[in-house]
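Quick one:
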Amino acid sequence: MLPFETPTIFEQLPRFIFKMPRVVTEQKSKFEADELFRRLSRETEVRYTGYRDRPLEERQIRFQNGCREGHTEAAFIATGTNLQLVFSPCANGYSEGCDFDKEQGKVHIKSTMIMNGVCVRWRGWLDLERLDGVACLEYDEERGAIEDSILREQMERYNSRMRELEERQRLFKAAQERQAEAEAELRKKHQTELSPERAGSASN
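Output:
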């Protein structure tokens, strides 16, 4: 800022950053109304999509190792929707999100995520040899409630700061108007004081 330059309203206001919300409002309504979610909410064929350029035997090993580490990727065949699945590692064959023991030759997986602004749960199974299976998406009520609460708090903070910004703008504008009025009054007074001197000079 240059010397003697009057600071603007934007320089006087505190800076803040509004983070993009992770979820939309009315998540469940969107899940029930959105065409993609409606299609994926029905059990349909899925397929493991990792390492597609490798031999089948290697892909089978990598798939099982990935599941035990707590991650894999699978696509819904009908829509081509490919998702990265993350869940609890299952070194001993079982975890909350990955179960090799439930059904022989298959692994059952549950993975939560935020997709298109909606909290969902991927639930299904894949065959350990064919690397395909059946799965669907479900609305995650518990995670959705948590994210809704975070969203409301975030929006309230944003609205509060916007109200603060508007109030400071109002005060700044009022101060500017008072300053302009004072300067106008000062110029008027100065001109009035000069008028008799000019009149005297003209008569001489």
